[in-house]
Here is the input.
Amino acid sequence: MLGIDRRVVQNFDWVLLFLILLLTTFGIANLMSATAAGSDGAVSDIARRQLLALGISGIALLVVIFIDYRHYERFATPLYVAMLLLLVGTLLFAPVTRGSRAWLLEGRLQPSEFAKIVMVIALARYFSRNPPSDITRLRDLVRPGLIVAAPVALIMLQPDMGVALLTLLVATTFLPFLRIPWRTWAVVAALGAAALAGVWSYGLKDYQQQRILDFVDPSRDPLSSGYQAMQSRIAVGSGGLFGKGWFDGTQTQLRFLPTQHTDFVFSVLAEEWGFVGSVIVLGLYATLLVWGLWIARNSKDPFGALLAVGLVGTLFWPALVNVAMVLGLAPVIGVPLPLFSYGGTALLAASISLGLLLNVSMRRYVF
Here is the structure.
């Protein structure tokens, strides 16, 4: 089970590894600047903790690579059940932190970050046995819909609307492979709009409604709930073409953004490295995601192909939502930027996704 075939080593995906190392290096450098204020020139405690998390994540990536990805298909159901039990345990035993029960181990572990990956494994297993191209009716989506609905519902109960939305978006990564007519999707969209109206009225707390209203018009409360969105735009705009330089961003070093090391870490990058630096980093993300789709296309079995597609979704959607949030194109919902934002659990989850992608790529010739 755990042995490494010689062909696996010969076909190791050095391109993907290089992209991971580049993004991780840029992310750590950016985080060091984001947390430099008040550290008197030394590496901040936040950066040290992230480096420790990076070491743990690297080990996890290697472990994931060693286990043939086809074994994940065989154990998809036990993994899924264990994930649901962990989410239930979080609801029951996690302390209330910032209004939600989402963290275990004194705020060090957020189980919902791993729910997206386990859900992708379960969906890949289902669709590998029930080809998406054969699905032409909505009722054919009942079982995969339940696979998605269970973790999303448990995460909403925490409540963590940001991660719940991300989990749902990751699931939509599989939709382009279905053959359901567009008229049917129009009906679904209408029902979804009605559901959103119900969620707005009965599911969202006041502060969550305020965030959405502030997204539409941040100037309505510039000193409170709209403050971060406005300061983020100022930081991005002040970077200009080439930026102010590493550790020289005024918005960053004067800490106008309270969460610049987590949700708004991209604003630090944009201020200090400007438009050119931002485009380079976004280009690296785009290359990584396109390479992930290439891995899916070249996989020799349906499960590997679908798994790779879903894993790309676990990286694509958080990156898209975070950058849109920083630029004022999406509401502030607390979504970290993969490999850049501070957070051990998010970094570990991203590393597991990347490890699984490497796993599928390395074994594309081993059949």
Observations:
- The mean pLDDT is 86.
- The chain has one domain: 6-362.
- Residues 32 and 43 are 7 Å apart (CA to CA).
